[in-house]
């Protein structure tokens, strides 16, 4: 799903405004502070469900790799997306 990849890029580039703009209003936090010590590297998409041009919901399971204080790490999540008004939004995720 394209929104998943663009949101990962926003994390990697440190653009919280984009992340908030693509977060569904029902679950979006009031503000988002990114940890500048985390250097995001690769994104592996493990699986997707729905999320096509005629769907209103989609799921992306991913593993995002990072370095923190020069130590490797990763975050794995199953993310839920919702299309509203012709736009996709990140809804929530479960680790």
From TrEMBL:
UniProt organism field: Paeniglutamicibacter sulfureus
Lineage start: Bacteria, Bacillati, Actinomycetota, Actinomycetes, Micrococcales
Highest taxon listed in the record's lineage: Bacteria
Record-annotated YchJ-like middle NTF2-like domain positions: 2-93
Gene3D superfamilies for this protein: 3.10.450.50
Protein's UniProt name: SEC-C motif-containing protein
Classification via InterPro entries: NTF2-like_dom_sf, YchJ-like_M
